[in-house]
Amino acid sequence: MFIETVPNRDSPPAVLLRESYRDAEGRTQKRTLANLSKLPGEVVAALKAILKGGTLVGPGVDQLQIERSLPHGHVAAALGMIRKIALDRLILSTARDAKARRNCDLVVAMIVDRLIMPRSKLGFVRAVDEETATTSLGAVLDLGRVKEREAYEALDWLLERQVRIENGLARRHLEDGVLVLYDVSSSYFEGRHCPLAQYGHSRDHRGDRPQIVYGLLCTRDGLPVAIEVFEGNTADPMTLKSQIEKLKSRFGIKRVVLVGDRGMITAARGSGTISNPQAWTGSRLCARRKSRPWHKRTARCSSRCLTSGTWRRSARRTSRVSG
Q1: Where are the chain's structural domains?
Q2: Which of 101-115, 234-248, 296-310 is least confident?
Q3: Under 8 Å CB-to-CB from 225, ≥6 apart: which residues?
């Protein structure tokens, strides 16, 4: 039994309920059981679904029961932006095997999860697992069941491709004579098995814990291009030399304007880390303001003061470095 729509010249088509049968000679025939042309379209569609083995749900509210509803909007926004800037394709690159695709999906999922709800790797695994999911992220990326071990293996896989990914980002966003932002931060550790974790100046005010130091290179618009991790007792100026070498040797940039923390660049220049700069610009405090306490140095001392900036402890200087 089936529903068939028959054209009717200039008139509306006829909607007929029919069934197939075989005649005395064994040939397939069909006959009309009812004319459904006067029924509303939604009723005809419901009859078609029932005839195909579907289940008809009534219009009442009590006919449906919501068992689970996963948030999706923030996932769609973050994942959509990653795909728009082709970051997922940059991470995957030429790898096309199933293992690489799985690792790439896990890395993208960890990026999105970090944006919408920062948590531990164990928390991430629980958030994307089919049974314990808190968002639609796992379902959208078709991750299925995720184990904690897989998350760490995906990070190891990503680390092996860091240089290639950074080179790709540099080709997209950097060019000769570009302005680059650089700054350093740190994170403390609770464990004891990180080879880079050392005791040092803690920006988290946790001097009782070992830490790592990491430096981030960004474009003038704040787009991250490269990151490097150092031992926790590394002084900020000592991280600058490797960044300049990275810009010149790996990224092929001959002239660059580097903007960073004033104290870090000054110390690096004094120790010879920055050699032969073409230009050095910045702002100095006049003698009268320099003698004031830190919290009173932001105001000009008089109308004749020629100081061009109001620098605090973390003031910045700009250096132009050439190869």
Answers
A1: 2-57, 73-159, 176-293+313-322
A2: 296-310
A3: 166, 169, 170, 173, 174, 180, 217, 218, 219
